[in-house]
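User: What would this chain look like folded?
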Amino acid sequence: MSLRAETPAPSGTDIRRFTRAERWVHRTTATLMGVCVVTAACLYIPQLAVLVGRRELVVRLHEWAGLALPVPVLLGLASRAFRADLRFLNRFGPHDKVWLRAALRRDRRPSERPAGKFNAGQKIYAAWIAGATLVMLGTGLLMWFTHLTPLQWRTSATFVHDWLALTIGIVLGGHIGMALGDPEARRGLRTGLVRREWADSEHPLWKG
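Assistant: Here's the prediction, encoded as structure tokens.
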């Protein structure tokens, strides 16, 4: 694949939303998360467990994909653009409260949903999934290294891990559903470019 095809230059109607490094972090993290979700389903749903078989292999895939989940983000910190996006995601302003109130009222008018590069919903999702990933990593390690912790700890870790996994699956389903409903947002993650008209409508406070 040529560099031109991978990283197209902005046209008169396009603006740059994500760099190649940022898209790589998203794709790699999404792939690892997908492996974790699919392998977890194969381990906990009897019909899938029987269909797939090879439980030991599935367990190993699940464990190593989970351990690798933080790696793309840590490597992404070498990118200035990625670090800047993390700062955007970590800051809530008065306009984010306005966006959330409109979302709760199901008011979809762009004028009622002011947003910078990321809207309030995306900021909440990013914070939640980051925290959930760390909890899953910690509880998974407690379950993996059984000789390091008391039985009560391992039992509690298993309970939290299993129920949080179910919650993550539901939240990811909603995230994917919203992405499917916004082709231009998907284009931004695929090519790094979005139409200026879309940015002005969906993220009017973003200085792209």
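Strands lie at 14-16, 193-195. If you want, I can go into more detail on any region.
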